[in-house]
Design goal:
The complex is a heterodimer of chains A (986) and B (95).
Chain A: E1 17-26, E2 29-35, H1 39-45, E3 52-53, E4 60-61, E5 74-77, E6 84-88, E7 98-102, H2 128-131, H3 138-151, E8 166-178, H4 182-193, E9 198-201, E10 217-218, E11 221-222, H5 223-236, E12 240-243, E13 246-252, E14 256-262, E15 276-288, E16 292-294, E17 307-309, H6 310-318, E18 327-332, H7 336-346, E19 350-356, E20 370-373, E21 377-381, E22 388-391, E23 396-398, E24 401-405, E25 408-410, E26 423-425, E27 430-432, E28 441-443, H8 453-470, E29 504-506, E30 511-512, H9 513-521, H10 527-534, H11 547-557, H12 562-565, H13 579-583, E31 595-596, H14 600-605, E32 609-613, E33 616-621, H15 630-643, E34 646-649, E35 654-659, H16 663-670, E36 683-689, E37 695-705, E38 708-713, H17 718-732, E39 739-742, E40 747-753, H18 757-762, E41 781-786, E42 790-795, E43 804-810, H19 814-824, E44 831-832, H20 835-845, H21 877-880, E45 891-898, E46 910-912, E47 925-933, E48 938-946, E49 955-960, E50 965-972, H22 982-985
Parallel strand pairs in A: 1-7, 8-9, 8-15, 9-12, 15-28, 17-24, 18-19, 18-24, 19-20, 31-33, 34-44
Antiparallel strand pairs in A: 1-2, 3-4, 5-6, 5-7, 10-11, 13-14, 14-15, 16-25, 21-22, 22-23, 26-27, 29-30, 32-33, 34-40, 35-38, 35-39, 36-37, 37-38, 40-43, 41-42, 42-43, 45-48, 45-50, 46-49, 47-48, 49-50
Helix pairs in contact in A: 4-5, 4-8, 6-7, 9-10, 9-11, 15-20
Chain B: E1 2-5, E2 9-12, E3 17-21, H1 35-44, E4 52-58, E5 66-72, E6 78-83, H2 84-90
Antiparallel strand pairs in B: 1-2, 3-4, 4-5, 5-6
The chains are: A alpha+beta (986), B alpha+beta (95).
Chain lengths: 986, 95
């Protein structure tokens, strides 16, 4: 790092604090600025004009504007994981220790090797990638595209996780004021004094808008000072929230606005606080007072560092006390450009010339400056920064800064975010908000086309009075401020013709007037085509300084009016919003909540391995000391359960409590099989169809009382099934006497499975409840008590195929219950088992689960066709009878075992028979679930096979094209273990 | 968007789950003549208007009411919100 340089271009005055010097670095060079500076103003103060290289042609670029519209001065901020590309230097608040580097060059900024692209420009004009690099075809992906991608572009990403914290917030107000310039401050003040709940937001760190950049007086005080006074009163009002560094970036439906507030970007360290907050603001009314943005004029080589917007030059001179040049020329088509010449002179900066395209009398005397009325700047000179300009007349003038004013465009962006289209206003030669504004939005001040300060106040006052009236509040009667007025006088002038040099329109995407003309010649004259063909306005600045200019130039080329040519609209966001801000705290593990089962803590104590099932974490298996492979644990759990007893947490299955006199009737309509006949104290398996006849879900439903049922759903479908049932209840049969509530989280439920399950439970269930096989047979259910009086539910159901129960206790007893079950099971060497063992046992029994209920399978496919009642009217049974779902060659769920039992089956394999090729034509179905069965001693699978039920004993191939494997399998019954169901009834 | 819930007042659309056309209330009966065709139309055929559209929204992050929301698909303006249960009854659905 070399030595600090002094701030050679610093002037007197300004809104900076000279008592607070700040050190920062740009491209490794140390500089100094002050509190109140932006990175751009501090760089200019230090004479640094050359900031980066352009997107396509790698041309030297400098600072063009003084606000969020900046197309050129994009830098990379920060280091390491904090590195942020494409940051606009013009809105980057300076802080001590800021580090910035320039972008888009290889080698040093001054000697970028990619600058050769500039000489290749004839090949890189509009639409070049549609036309060139077409041959040979294979070269595109391998050669051309990587080269183009590498040379074109902006900053680079750190490639690391974003280390910062982001947050989200919600605000409600009567009136949102967007922009804290003169119109916004005045409106917010009147609304605040009337008692309205007001939010006023501005992207700048200093309220005041253009008042901070101009030399206006308001009520005989300087505009910037007036802004300080109003901001102070706003901050004192409890019903007003004045937000700085907060960009309202989008207008959404029904008065909802999005805003991004930068909380710590201007500080050396975030210090653990959120870097940015994404606000959602709910409003009754919104007032857009976003001001206006200056546009340029297109002339030869108008992109050199030193060519700036005239209003921005005033901002640097008045607000930041920086002279952007030692000898400044002005090029304008309107009176406003002359203000720049005036303010520069007033600050003692040399104005070398004013070139005005209008052939009128000079509006102002400027001793020492060359005044050229009816003149045009046709070209500029200077390799890495402006040194002089050439007029169409051939006259050359020395200048190291050229202030260009082509007129001001109202900031209509947010008025377009729904369906609004701006309309052309001839008087100011600019687009103003159209009629179709977002509901609840009004526009005032410069954003509405009021370009002089007295008009701004008049417009704001009228509009806010109207809004307060609508909100039924009475407006304070304070008189509107009196101001020095300025005349708006503009004669449109868009581009210098008859020049051989390239005239830039969109500086960020390197679009020139030649590209626009080429676009027109090739038929892309509609404005939306122009945009896409030339990429004009499609960079990160969204064409804030270029869209209207490009449109007007197209109109001239096409020899039609601007309204005939079209209009340009904007989409959110107004300025870029980081994805991290959109995500807020919903990142990584916090992307969604994690649901823990009641036995989670106990399972952790056992060293369980967990698996995510939806939002749940479930124990997958419980490794024991000495077990080195998951299969060892799972095989042990299965074997121990089948030989004695195992316990599994099944809380995650959906539980829906169904009550009412018509509860049975309701179940009859939502399940495909019959439920009206289910006796109290009994459980039945239920198959639920979608209305289109495809299986939606399955589970068991227990009748706990005359008018009380408890339904279970699969874990994955718990939410969807409940939603569906509420739809049926409220929308289809509103007068059925039935009510539903989800009870999934209210009950902790454990499966107790295996030949010793009853013996275990006899030590848990209170003795007055007889759970012998006679009193409590397979598919029984009851309300019972356990462990000395705790209410519980007991169901004799089995997913494992063993004699099994599910016992449910209120969730608060869930942890105690698992411990009690394990203790009661000690004499039987009880094991806890996880979802893997559960899965092995269900495949061994041929039960369908998520792999089989995939949203394309019917009851017929699952071998449950006869369960679908043809008598009653239930969801899905009419369409389940469609011909196409009932063909003779429909797939059926069957079992598979490898002919060579040493082979491991692979789920997802497809079946072909007769040694045929593995092609789509020969495909006869697929293997849906595969496990290693410790009970059988080999790999087994279930799957869907054409006419599978008629093909038991047949041998065919299970093909895995991914690994080019082919395994011979035998078609068998899906019931591998205890096919007659003797165990579960035991 | 903000949905004016008949019972709970203005609620953010993020609290709701969208289903679709409110014609889904009019489920045919298995006993209808030509029930297969009626169900096919019920299940698969929808109008797709540019303008007012009556649609079903479910207040999943709220009171679990199904609502019939009349929304302009062009402007997103919501002109009417009713409990689906009331709409279903008024349009002849009962048990």
């Amino acid at each position: 790092m070399s030595q600090e340089r002094s701030q050679l271009n610093r002037l007197d005055g300004g809104l900076i604090n000279r008592d607070e010097p700040l050190n920062f670095s740009f491209n490794g060079q140390m500089y100094q600025g002050y509190t109140g500076d932006t990175l751009a103003s501090a760089l200019l103060a230090n004479g640094q004009r050359f900031i980066g290289r352009s997107f396509k042609y790698h041309r030297p670029r400098g600072i063009f504007s003084a606000g969020s519209e900046e197309p050129n001065a994009l830098v990379e901020l920060g280091k390491g994981a904090h590195q942020e590309p494409n940051t606009r230097a013009t809105v980057t608040e300076l802080f001590d220790g800021l580090t910035a580097t320039s972008q888009n060059h290889r080698g040093p900024l001054k000697f970028d090797v990619m600058a050769a692209n500039d000489f290749l420009s004839p090949f890189l004009s509009a639409g070049f990638y549609y036309k060139t690099f077409m041959w040979p075809k294979a070269f595109w992906e391998k050669l051309y595209e990587p080269i183009i991608r590498k040379s074109a572009g902006l900053g680079s990403l750190s490639g690391q996780d974003d280390p910062d914290l982001y947050d989200k917030g919600f605000l409600h107000c009567d009136l949102l004021v967007i922009g804290a310039g003169p119109a916004g401050l005045w409106s917010a003040l009147k609304a605040g004094r009337s008692g309205a709940r007001v939010v006023i937001a501005d992207e700048d760190f200093l309220p005041g808008g253009r008042l901070n950049a101009e030399s206006h007086t308001i009520n005989d005080t300087r505009g910037a000072e007036w802004a300080v006074q109003i901001a102070a009163e706003l901050r004192s009002l409890p019903n007003v929230r004045l937000m700085t560094r907060a960009t309202v970036y989008g207008a959404y439906d029904h008065g909802v606005y999005g805003a991004l507030e930068r909380k710590t970007d201007h500080l050396p360290s975030a210090d653990g606080k959120p870097r940015q907050v994404l606000w959602r603001i709910y409003t009754k009314r919104a007032l857009l007072t976003a001001g206006s943005t200056e546009r340029s004029i297109a002339f030869g080589n108008n992109d050199r560092p030193g060519v700036m917007l005239a209003g921005a030059v005033r901002t640097y001179v008045n607000r930041y006390a920086v002279a952007p040049g030692k000898s400044v020329a002005v090029f304008t088509n309107n009176h406003d450009g002359w203000r720049t010449a005036h303010d520069l002179s007033a600050q003692g900066v040399n104005v070398s010339a004013v070139i005005d395209t209008r052939s009128i009398a000079a509006p102002m005397n400027l001793p020492g400056a060359a005044i050229v009325m009816g003149g045009e700047v046709s070209n500029t000179s200077g390799r890495s920064g402006l040194t002089g300009i050439t007029l169409s007349s051939g006259q050359t003038i020395k200048a190291d800064c050229l202030a260009v004013s082509g007129g001001w465009n109202p900031n209509v962006h947010l008025t377009c975010h729904q369906r609004g289209r701006p309309t052309w206003n001839n008087e100011i030669s600019a687009f103003v908000p159209g009629e179709n504004l977002p509901k609840g939005m009004s526009v005032a001040g410069a954003a509405n086309g009021a370009l002089s300060l007295s008009e701004v106040f008049a417009s704001a006052d009228t509009t806010v009075n109207q809004l307060l009236n609508e909100l039924q509040l009475s407006a304070d009667s304070a008189p509107t401020p009196t101001t020095s007025d300025d005349l708006v006088n503009i004669q449109p002038f868009w581009h210098v013709k008859n020049t051989k040099d390239r005239c830039w329109v969109d500086l960020q995407n390197d679009v020139t007037t030649k590209d626009i003309d080429q676009s027109r010649r090739e038929g892309f004259h509609a404005v939306e085509h122009l945009k896409r063909y030339t990429t004009m306005g499609m960079a990160t600045d969204q064409g804030k300084t270029s869209n209207v200019l490009g449109l007007a130039i197209m109109a001239e080329f096409a020899e039609q009016s601007i309204p005939q040519t079209g209009t340009t609209i904007f989409r959110p966001p107004f300025t870029p919003v980081a994805i991290s801000a959109m995500a807020g705290r919903s990142r990584g593990k916090d992307f969604r909540p994690t649901r823990h089962t009641p036995s989670h803590q106990w399972a952790e104590e056992q060293g369980a391995v967990f698996v995510e099932v939806g939002a749940w974490l479930r124990a997958q298996w419980f490794p024991q000391p000495g077990e080195t492979h998951w299969r060892e644990s799972v095989d042990r759990e299965v074997t121990a359960t089948r030989e004695s007893v195992g316990v599994c947490d099944v809380t995650t299955l959906g539980k829906i409590d169904i009550q009412g006199a018509d509860a049975g009737e309701f179940l009859d309509r939502v399940y495909a099989n019959t439920f009206g006949t289910l006796a109290v104290g009994k459980v039945r398996y239920g198959l639920m169809l979608r209305e289109d006849g495809i299986v939606m879900d399955d589970g068991t439903t227990a009748r706990m009382g005359e008018h009380h049922y408890v339904m279970t759903t699969t874990t994955a479908n718990a939410v969807g099934v409940f939603r569906h049932l509420e739809f049926c209840r409220q929308c289809l049969w509103p007068d059925l006497d039935v009510h539903l509530i989800s009870a999934t989280e209210q009950w902790a439920q454990y499966a107790v499975a295996g030949p010793n399950s009853r013996k275990l439970l006899e030590n848990i269930v209170d003795p007055e409840f007889d759970i012998s096989n006679d009193a409590f047979p397979f598919m029984a259910c009851a309300n019972i008590t356990v462990c000395g009086g705790i209410a519980a539910r007991l169901f004799r159901i089995s997913f494992s195929g063993e004699m099994a129960y599910e016992i449910a206790v209120p969730t608060r007893y869930g942890d105690s219950m698992i411990r009690a079950l394990m203790q009661a099971g000690e004499p039987y060497n009880v094991v806890p088992y996880g979802t893997e063992a559960l899965g092995v046992m269900r495949v061994e029994k041929g039960h369908a689960a998520g792999n089989e209920l995939v949203g394309t399978t019917t009851a017929l496919n699952l071998g449950l066709g006869r369960m679908v009642s043809k008598k009653k009217d239930c969801i899905g049974n009419v369409l389940s009878e469609r011909e196409g779902l009932n063909t003779d060659d429909a797939i059926r769920l069957v079992g598979f075992k490898p002919v060579n039992t040493a082979d491991s089956l692979v789920a997802g394999s497809h079946f072909v028979s007769g040694g045929r090729d593995a092609t789509t034509e020969n495909d006869e179905g697929w293997m849906s679930s595969v496990v290693y069965s410790p009970s059988m001693g080999h790999s087994i699978g279930i799957g869907f096979l054409t006419k599978g039920h008629e093909r038991l004993g047949e041998t065919l191939s299970a093909v895995n094209p991914l690994r080019n494997e082919r395994i011979e399998v035998e078609v068998v019954s899906a019931h591998f273990v205890d096919p007659d169901g003797e165990r579960l009834r035991g | 968007m903000i949905i004016e819930h008949p019972l709970l007042g203005p609620r953010d659309a993020a609290e709701f789950v969208y289903l679709g056309d409110a014609s889904l209330i009019h489920r045919p009966s298995k006993d209808d003549t030509n029930a297969a065709v009626a169900f096919l139309e019920y299940q698969y055929l929808r109008d797709n208007p540019a303008g007012l559209h009556r649609e079903l929204w479910y207040h999943e992050q709220g009171d679990r009411s199904w609502l019939v929301v009349t929304r302009n698909t062009v402007t997103h303006e919501i002109t009417d919100v009713q409990l689906a249960k009331d709409v279903a009854r008024s349009e002849g659905r009962s048990r």
